[in-house]
Every structure is written in C-alpha cells, then in structure tokens.
Amino acid sequence: MMDSVHSLEQEQEWEEGKVLIRRLAQTDGTLISPIDLTLDITTPLSLEKLRWLNFDLEPTKLKVTNTGETAIVSGKWNPIRPYLNRGPLDANYVFSQLHFHW
C-alpha cells in the first residue's frame, strides 16, 4: 500500500521506468564500468522515490576496514536492520555494507 495517493497514470509511469531499468541492466558482461554519463544526452525517468527504513537505528557493532585503496563500513543490527525499497526496486534490500574507493 502506498503512503500517499498516486494516480494510476503515475504508477504506470513508475512501472514502465522499472521495466526499462531491468532491461538496461541485462548485459552480456562486455559493458565497461564505471559508466561515463553524459548528462546532456540522458533522458530522465519518472520513478517512485527510494524509501529508506530504519536507517536511523544505531548498529550494535560497527566495523571499518581500510585496505589502502578502499574503506569498508559494515555493521550488525539487532533485531531490525536498515533497508530500502520502492524506486526501481521490487523488494526490500537490506543494508550489508558500504565502501569507498580512492
């Protein structure tokens, strides 16, 4: 159920955006990463906003690892973990870790 009322047209537009993202994500593995995005030739998609839940809960444990090239932050929550959903996502995605490269 939606938190607020949206038109059927808006929900259809969001679903079409999700389908497009899924189609674009299906590759044979030959595409390079990271992707160089050229903003003047991009087309905006209309998607429902991503929704973060429980992101304000403090972890019971937090681990930060510095490899010299990457910083990795992971945590343990008990019993409820942060997660996100909506936007282009069809399910809840539970936070596992985040990392930064330099």
Automatic annotation (TrEMBL):
It comes from the Eukaryota. Residues 1-102 form the Alpha-carbonic anhydrase domain. This is Alpha-carbonic anhydrase domain-containing protein. SUPFAM superfamilies: Carbonic anhydrase. InterPro entries: CA_dom (IPR001148), CA_dom_sf (IPR036398). It holds the Pfam family Carb_anhydrase.
